[in-house]
Design a protein that fits this description.
Elements lengths: L7 H7 L13 H22 L5 E3 L10 E3 L2 H4 L6 H27 L4 H13 L3 H11 L1 H18 L6 H24 L2 H33 L2 H60 L2
Antiparallel strand pairs: 1-2
């Protein structure tokens, strides 16, 4: 009876899970932040921009008093209407998620240069010193360090494994790296959807606010008529354009931050790919 070689599946049954465990990141900021930011946007619009003492003709009511005669440029934003607090809330969302992503991605980058870290690991592997390479991972930390550490642990196991062929061992290391990577990447990309959505939505919502303001202005012109109506129309158009300005500023800020973070993530992803390539090529060349 012909002898059959063991497969990677047999080894996987002994250690089926990756050595990197999923990080338990709370998703509460994704649920709470948008609501809190919209409420904060309304409060800023209603009680700071719409402070009755900053208008010559303060209106009545609580939710949306019709103040007239703003004393300052910021107070004119209040007359832009109920769309303005939504835009302010979206701007606060961009600010909150930018800070959250900055802290998370900065932590995922690790404590030093990724390229220098990979070079040090390559040096230790070339000298067959896997423990020193693992120590470098502990110092580096971050996503690249975590993935490299997971791969090195499987790398170390495969050195003493006498059941599998070299190709099967390389495949086992590669699989470990891929599993570790699949646990790290979602953490890096989390909440970026808010920035990409706001980039598009802020401009459209601002346009909606501008159109509503223009409708109100022309309706006022049609009702009153005369020379005074032209002045009222000019003021109304100016107020409506505050929606456009706020929306464009919010969208521009969101777009810049989204591109900054995706660029940083691309750098980390490249480091992870380079780590996997380093491990598989090193093992294939040193342990034939």
């Amino acid at each position: 009876m012909a002898e059959t070689k063991p497969t990677v599946t047999a080894t996987a049954s002994k250690a089926s899970s990756t050595s990197v465990q999923p990080q338990k990141n709370s998703n509460i900021i994704s649920l709470v932040a948008p609501i809190v930011c919209i409420i904060a946007g309304y409060l800023i619009w209603r009680f700071i921009l719409g402070n009755a003492s900053d208008f010559t003709k303060p209106g009545e009511g609580w939710f949306w008093p019709q103040h007239r005669g703003p004393k300052g440029a910021w107070n004119r934003m209040y007359e832009g209407g109920i769309i303005v607090p939504i835009l302010i809330g979206m701007f606060l969302m961009v600010l909150v998620f930018s800070i959250e992503r900055f802290l998370t991605i900065n932590r995922a980058t690790g404590t030093g240069s990724i390229s220098e870290f990979v070079r040090k690991v390559q040096y230790h592997l070339a000298n067959r010193n896997v423990d020193a390479a693992l120590a470098e991972c502990d110092r580096q930390r971050g996503s690249v360090g975590n993935v490299m550490k997971a791969g090195l642990r499987r790398y170390k196991e495969m050195i003493s494994n006498s059941e599998l062929t070299t190709d099967q061992k390389v495949l086992a290391i590669q699989k470990e790296v891929e599993e570790a990577t699949s646990l790290e990447l979602p953490m890096l990309q989390k909440n970026l959807v808010f920035l990409s959505t706001i980039t598009s939505a802020a401009t459209l919502i601002a346009l909606l606010g501008t159109v509503i303001g223009m409708i109100r202005s022309f309706a006022s012109l049609g009702e009153s008529g005369g020379a005074g109506a032209a002045t009222e129309l000019a003021i109304g158009i100016s107020e409506a354009l505050y929606n456009t300005a706020t929306g464009i500023a919010t969208a521009a800020f969101s777009l810049v931050m989204y591109n900054v973070f995706t660029t940083k993530i691309d750098g980390i992803t490249y480091g992870i790919d380079e780590s996997g390539f380093t491990l598989t090529q090193s093992f294939a060349s040193l342990y034939k």
